[in-house]
Amino acid sequence: MKKNSPKSIFTLFLAAIIWGIAFVAQTDAAETGIGAFTFNGTRFVLGALALIPVIIIFEREKLTKSMLKTIVFPACITGTILFIASSMQQFGIEMTGSVSKSSFITGLYMVLVPIFAFVFLKRKISWSVWLGAVVAVVGLYLLSIKQGESLEWGDALLLIATIFWASHILTVDKFIVNASPLKFSAVQMFVCGMLGIICALFFETWDWNAMAESTGAILYTGLLSSGVAYTCQLIGQKGTTPTVSTMILSTEAVFGALAGVVFNEEFLSVRMIIGCVMMFIGIILAQLEIGPKAKKTA
């Protein structure tokens, strides 16, 4: 049985912190007026380039024709899904303008992954997953819907994006078995970034002032959020069980909410705080796999 080493746990928490703070960077970038396609295209291409030195250091084997089947073609599929998910997320962040709300709604993909696995892959799941889903949905209602109002467009886009985030995780899980994780990630990020740049050329106006104002956000999300955090995730998962690693990474939502309060001085009402807490509890319940139908992953 794989042991959960303190070093690996710390590394996973570091990845979650970096990803949580990334919501602040994405929100700040949206406020500059930079287009969602332009921002995502630039940062994902930068993220792919950032992985090149990591690949050279840790995976020096030469490229072969077999990698076309195990890496390039599958990564094009996951890269396309990643493009859809990240684009909808960025548009949603632009509309909501809230770091805390965006991070918690995005965190719902942790609940959707086991449910999608049950529906599409016929994998058995425990009752704690269903309970977690119900608790998370109630939390989403308290966080996103004010009394007497309906779900806002930005919230809806973030919610739809979680469907693609969950699909991305399951698709990667299918293709990554015989592939190099670092090379796979670099290719999919490059595909995602290029799709963003192409869409930006057709649907957005290139704003150099907005690009300049978004430099910090692009560098953070490109280099740290993609390059460093992904590497931390790989290192951390080697020394922890899948259940523990997923639970730790799900704290991304909490760190995102805290970052919103600290850096963006966001105000959370009591109702919204209760919603955040319920969503986080729901996410954790979905990872516990309690019950007779729980599938052992340790």
Could you explain how this protein is built, in words?
Residues 294-298 have low confidence and may be disordered. This protein has 13 helices and no strands. It has one domain (6-288). Helix 3 (66-96) crosses helix 4. It has helices at 6-32, 36-58, 66-96, 99-106, 109-121, 127-144, 153-175, 181-203, 208-213, 215-238, 242-249, 252-263, 270-288. The protein has 298 residues and is an all-alpha fold.
Report the end-to-end length measured between terminal Cα atoms: 6 Å
**Strand segment tally:** 0
Would you identify the regions where 5 or more consecutive residues have pLDDT less than 50?
Answer: 294-298
Strand content: under 5%
Q: Please identify the structural class as seen in this structure.
A: mainly alpha
Q: What would the average pLDDT be, to the nearest integer?
A: 83
Q: Helical percent range?
A: over 70%
Shape: globular
How many domains comprise the coordinates? 1
What's the quick description here?
By secondary structure, the protein is mostly helical. The protein contains 13 helices and no strands.
List keywords for this structure.
298 residues, mainly alpha, disordered C terminus
